[in-house]
From TrEMBL, chains A, B:
It catalyses: (S)-4-hydroxy-2-oxohexanoate = propanal + pyruvate; (S)-4-hydroxy-2-oxopentanoate = acetaldehyde + pyruvate. One of its GO terms (molecular function) is 2-isopropylmalate synthase activity. The keyword Repeat does not apply. This is 4-hydroxy-2-oxovalerate aldolase. InterPro entries: 2-IPM_HCS-like, 4OH_2_O-val_aldolase, Aldolase_TIM, DmpG_comm, DRE_TIM_HOA, PYR_CT. It comes from Peribacillus simplex. Pfam families: DmpG_comm, HMGL-like. Substrate binds at residues 27-28, 181, 208, 299. The keyword 4Fe-4S does not apply.
Length: 353, 353
């Protein structure tokens, strides 16, 4: 039922695994702790994740290398120091960094490689793969695994997604990830896309899920069934929005299905409890706001602005988010949010007259 | 793709819905609040669930009518008073009660019917449907919808499950539910079972999911795809173990799929926030203990006893739970738990020598 990709490994961390897990709590989870991870926390988690056999561990600001800023939130400790700390205790695991061109630079990628990062995930909006060319090439040149990471994938048609993934393949990417940033995909939509990518690409396919519609683990299973062999997870769901696919749950479910991750479940359960008790300031539940983000398909950064605009113009923030989703608005376009709210207020006024 | 069961409704609450949702926060969620629901809470939630268009609302002790006891935990307010309070504000919604023969009695069912409960869900272990006969017949006699509720369904083969469901059908049940009490089902297992039931039964099929493997919503979708048209949900997941399929998420996802529940999403989101702020003492996360229960397939009541036995005999509680799952131990068989722990300790000692 499941394809076995044994032996196609790069970098020596693949072993006999059917599915290669990248733990993103120390990157996507950075959003949850307002980018305040300490050296001690990074070392502790990395050491224990490595001991549990997690092959890749991503360490970066939530918005990638260079994300520490007024706009995205300042980190407590800079990325390179955190990466260096992680590398020291990573053992057999490889440390990954995320890079969003425009936020992070090739210089920062070089610094990360210099301190021992082995994998670079170059992230662009799903329709903007062309901006990843230099960065993917730079990663290869630096001797890193180079991964394309197509964010907000649900905004593109399956055909557009394949076109963009092929661009990343042509730039030398070792794998391309379908990234469900808003947690908006339904299982059938994942199935169609991974299937089409598998047919058209010759490199590994990855899937990165968020749990806004409570489908992160299920969508990851569908992706694996269709041939994806790289899956992201986050211990205790630590990540933006409603959080990610929960790593320890993925490990348990894949084990039940006979799909090898070579990750020790009990060690992950111990770490899950520790993370719950020590790192999490609030649980990763599906709240009204994270659900409406998955439902409307907009990114979590819109929420604060939509709430402000809703208050100012006397409309429902959820209606604003739904309209932004329909218009497929991307990035942090506050102007659009205000414009949508204004229009809604005018329409409402017109209806009331 | 999805069957439309329009017009097959009983009791006038079905309307044009494709899927009929029963909200179980005021029954399964009773476990979460140690059975301390007040009249005010039940009225508030029932009124708002009714206003949102939820067709069925279940109100009972977590272990059903008569559950209030030293063994299962005493309720703050007795079941019949809570049911009566709910009925007062239920509007178009029907109030359901759960009854586990052996815990609750036919007298209690009559009392519930007398104060206006419209549906009785008679719950037995998946292999013990025969004990539901009198109670299902009594429910019909009392003019209630009579529903069979096969708990711990994952413990039976698909064929055994069908055999037991057919028994309930023969006793006059209007529907039979596949109940994933331990949150242990994988999607393919749900698919096989619902498909086989749909082929063999002439009554409605229901599905009740728990989220221990993060698959509650996904498994509910699979059940619907295979022909189930009654689905349980719990607002904010309020329920035993890792909680239930989250009702507001189900509503959003089914809406995205074009499957009608006729439930107002925004009203459910408002209620979700209120429940999160006022009723929940702790979030419904998937913790190390709820995950191991879904993984091993044992019921949540085993956990405390397994932890005690683990401490006493110096073994890992998770290994005890896994062994109990392998032995398909049911009910609150503390003797078995201690026996398993003892054997493990002896084996461990033998290995160490």
């Amino acid at each position: 039922m499941y394809e076995n990709e044994n032996g196609s490994g790069k970098g020596g961390v693949r072993l006999e695994r059917d599915v290669v897990v990248t733990e993103v709590a120390l990157r996507d989870g950075s959003h949850v702790v307002a980018h305040q991870f300490t050296i001690e926390q990074v070392k502790n988690l990395t050491g224990k994740l490595s001991a549990a056999g997690v092959p890749y561990i991503e360490v970066s600001h939530g918005d990638g290398l260079g994300g520490s800023s007024l706009q995205y939130g300042f980190s407590k400790v800079n990325d390179i120091e955190l990466v260096e700390a992680a590398v020291e205790v990573a053992g057999e695991s490889a440390i990954s960094v995320l890079l969003i061109p425009g936020i992070g630079t090739i210089d920062q990628l070089r610094e990360a490689a210099d301190v021992g990062a082995k994998m670079a995930r170059v992230a662009t909006h799903v329709t903007e793969a062309d901006v990843s060319k230099q960065h993917l090439e730079a990663a290869k040149h630096l001797g890193m695994e180079a991964i394309g990471f197509l964010m907000m994938s649900h905004m593109a048609s399956p055909e557009k997604l394949v076109e963009q993934a092929l661009l990343m393949e042509s730039y030398g990417a070792d794998a391309v990830y379908v990234v469900d940033s808003a947690g908006a995909f339904l299982p059938q939509e994942v199935k169609t896309r991974i299937n089409l990518l598998k047919t058209n690409l010759n490199i590994d396919i990855g899937f990165h899920a968020h749990n806004n519609l409570s489908l992160a683990v299920a969508n990851s299973l569908v992706a694996i069934e269709e041939g994806a062999n790289r899956i992201d997870g986050s211990i205790r769901c630590l990540g933006a929005g409603a959080g990610n696919a929960q790593t320890e749950v993925l490990v348990a479910v894949l084990d039940r299905l006979g799909i090898r991750t070579d990750i020790d479940l009990y060690k992950m359960l111990d770490l899950s409890e520790e993370v719950g008790n020590t790192i999490m300031q609030k649980p990763q539940e599906i709240t009204d706001s994270s659900l409406i983000m998955g439902y409307s398909g907009v990114y979590s950064s819109f929420l604060l602005h939509a709430n402000k605009a809703a208050k100012k113009y006397g409309v429902d923030a959820r209606d604003i988010l739904m309209e932004l989703g329909r218009q497929k608005v991307v990035g942090g376009q506050e102007d659009t949010i205000i414009e949508v709210a204004k229009q809604m207020a005018l329409q409402k006024e017109g209806t009331l007259r």
